[in-house]
Amino acid sequence: xxxxxxxxxxxxxxxxxxxxxxxxxxxxxxxxxxxxxxxxxxxxxxxxxxxxxxxxxxxxxxxxxxxxxxxxxxxxxxxxxxxxxxxxxxxxxxxxxxxxxxxxxxxxxxxxxxxxxxxxxxxxxxxxxxxxxxxxxxxxxxxxxxxxxxxxxxxxxxxxxxxxxxxxxxxxxxxxxxxxxxxxxxxxxxxxxxxxxxxxxxxxxxxxxxxxxxxxxxxxxxxxxxxxxxxxxxxxxxxxxxxxxxxxxxxxxxxxxxxxxxxxxxxxxxxxxxxxxxxxxxxxxxxxxxxxxxxxxxxxxxxxxxxxxxxxxxxxxxxxxxxxxxxxxxxxxxxxxxxxxxxxxxxxxxxxxxxxxxxxxxxxxxxxxxxxxxxxxxxxxxxxxxxxxxxxxxxxxxxxxxxxxxxxxxxxxxxxxxxxxxxxxxxxxxxxxxxxxxxxxxxxxxxxxxxxxxxxxxxxxxxxxxxxxxxxxxxxxxxxxxxxxxxxxxxxxxxxxxxxxxxxxxxxxxxxxxxxxxxxxxxxxxxxxxxxxxxxxxxxxxxxxxxxxxxxxxxxxxxxxxxxxxxxxxxxxxxxxxxxxxxxxxxxxxxxxxxxxxxxxxxxxxxxxxxxxxxxxxxxxxxxxxxxxxxxxxxxxxxxxxxxxxxxxxxxxxxxxxxxxxxxxxxxxxxxxxxxxxxxxxxxxxxxxxxxxxxxxxxxxxxxxxxxxxxxxxxxxxxxxxxxxxxxxxxxxxxxxxxxxxxxx
Length: 745
Ligand SMILES: [Zn+2]
Description:
The protein has helices at about 20-35, 40-50, 60-75, 150-155, 180-185, 195-200, 265-275, 345-370, 390-400, 400-405, 430-440, 450-465, 470-480, 495-500, 525-535, 540-555, 565-600, 600-605, 625-650, 655-665, 705-710, 715-745; strands at about 80-85, 90-100, 105, 130, 135-145, 165-170, 190-195, 220-225, 260-265, 300-310, 315-325, 330-340, 375-380, 405-415, 420-425, 505-510, 690, 700. By secondary structure, the chain is an alpha/beta fold.
């Protein structure tokens, strides 16, 4: 999986704590590191690794794990493979056909494309979604747009429901797995998901093979395991899926869906949608297909859908490699990327994996030449990410105690692309990310990565080609640090950040490639990647240089380069957003009530295409945010005070004080966990960042409060405002104590 968004990065603001001499030594080391990064290496590895299907359980995915292991060893790393036994449904048969008003056979494997040599290799699994519920159903079809809560409300106002029917949703708007989950909750007995050309087909570019966008036969595979409840192996929530682990029965696993679901192409979807009757779909339901979108549900369009899978446990091969630290061997800097794919996976994930291998080769070379990192560096090539972060989550759950007592950061990449650096993660590392992006050159323009990102943001805002929020635009215009985004889910950092509380980062280039067009299809191939995404893997090398610097600077610093006022400022922005959300909701509730009492909905409705009144909802009350606001104020003061003292005196600490300070900062981010977790999903324990229950990959910040307001659980909003305040207070206290160590030495 991978995500993109234009939000990212820059310059040395108030605090440039690094000493000039140390800085020069770093620059020398980094120049040697850069010299060992090779796009040619990456091209050769990518070609080999993407030459055959790489789904979980496939021979080539295992072969890749073994070749990654051999490479780490040959570069001097202490490496091994750790195997987990995970539930992974392999499709045995998939069937989708139109039965009424005509019989049309649909579905099946995506056809080969002559220009793409790997599109015809043997062993590729057909289009499917993992962890749907097997079944064989025939029913009337209803079009549900993105299949999100507001879409069901729009359907209800038009007198259409999905009870006993098959829902067809388009990709986009929210995470894939929410579509069948919500269809199931609304009573549907089956679900189809199709790729509308508006999102990633001719709506965005020429289609493959002329261009890189999704062809009409392309299908997006994916997982629909309910990761908003918990990711990882559905049978072993909270514990590692070792061979002898206690396991749930499959029917008891909350994250496996009950209804059969398949993804289809827009060629197939056209066959269905063009025949749908029933009411006109609202304007926002229309995609880019050349037809009038209808809602269906009139009994005239019947679809037959059947899926059968083989549900045995499969081995997942995580490659674990270490370079031991010389000074702080028990402080770990972790860095990972997955190696399993839906099919070939040249873009997702292998382009990121080969960038990671380049870093490992370069670090190995420095090590062989006598350099020793101060902290231990741990590199991880995960298996079974695609079915729902299985390899990384099971590793995190198995080693939870050790990781929480040793690791200080987890840095993730996934598929890479061409264009601009995107970075998200724990905001105490925002300044470091900006510093690194200042020191790496953009391969196409020769300016720094951060300068290019700034220019892009300023031009996009001026040309109005992309929304750029005010805060980011101002930073870009002022040459200040660009804000990094918040992490939701969709790749392997989830367990490390949201379950274990480790500071985490996720990075990648994108915005100018066409990887979205072949995302999770057989056409995500070496040919596509080297033609349309990152020809010559120049951005592969740039990614290695960015991530390698992050690893080096954290591993080799006397004290990890965190700047807590960035975190404090960001949390304060989140509080402003949540406060405004509650106010806006209250205004909206009042307007709805007035429209209802005035009978305005009925008066505005077109009798020939009637739309019913909005569903009545209780008024959003005032949420008790005072304690949280106080905690955010205190955090701002504590963070600024700490940063100022560290900038002034951090370089000259006595060894004993340094040791004490480092111990206090290593696990400070874990203070942001509340062991009780989030409502109805206790696996997610982070009080600042979570994947949204109704956005999936998209982050919800201050999730306990924000989602409670959105979902009208007003009791929870008050409860969680207090819990967030408590974790922030603990965090501030730790910063105060850390400052006292520096001041008092
Ligand atoms: Zn991926």
